Amino acid sequence: MLGEEYKVKEIKRLCSEGKSLLSISEELGLSLYHVKTLMDKHGIVKDNVNKSKINKERIIELFVEQKLGVGVIAKRLGVSGTTVTKVLQEEGLLQPRYKKRLVSYD
Q1: Which residues, 6+ apart, have CB-to-CB distance to 75 below 8 Å?
Q2: What phi, psi does 65 have (nearest 5°)?
Q3: Handedness of CA 55, 57, 63, 68 (dihedral sign)
Q4: Do 19 and 10 form a contact (C-beta atoms < 8 A)?
Q5: 28 neighbors 35 (Cβ within 8 angstroms)
Q6: Better pLDDT: 16 or 96
Q7: What distance in Å separates the CA atoms of residue 7 and residue 73, rounded to the nearest whole number?
Q8: Cα–Cα dist 1/84, whole Å
Q9: Phi and psi at residue 27, in whole multiples of 5°?
């Protein structure tokens, strides 16, 4: 069993690498709740999105030109579906609630 000090150190390291909370919990063999609790207790703050990882132009290209879905794009680029959805919504290519394409392929 891992000591709390080691867990906190590893959580900080993995957060700095841009890992998601889910991947951190899986890598350390902890529940997501346990990871969040330790982060709160020790004041560890993680940005929701690793901004350097997001390539908006590539997301748009895959969506518009290659006609890929949100899930496929997310998996291909290593970001969450929520991130892809937000980018597409910001660009006016996806309606906020229904994930309906606003781009026609005529």
Answers
A1: none
A2: -80, -40
A3: negative
A4: no
A5: yes
A6: 16
A7: 32
A8: 37
A9: -65, -35
Q: What pairs with residue 94 in β-bridges?
A: 101
Within 8 A by CB and 6+ apart from 8, the residues are: 38, 42, 44
Closest CA to 11 of 31, 29, 38, 33: 38
- Report the C-alpha gap between 33 and 49 in whole angstroms: 19
* CA distance linking residue 81 with residue 77, whole number of Å: 10
Residue type (1 letter), 86? K
Alpha helices by DSSP H, 17-69? 21-28, 32-41, 56-64
Q: What is the pLDDT of residues 58-97, one digit of tens each?
A: 999 999 999 999 999 988 887 888 889 989 988 888 887 6
DSSP letters, 74-96, are HHHHTS-HHHHHHHHHHTTSB-T
What residue ranges do the domains of the chain occupy? 4-41, 51-90
Band (pLDDT 50/70/90 cuts) for residue 10 is very high
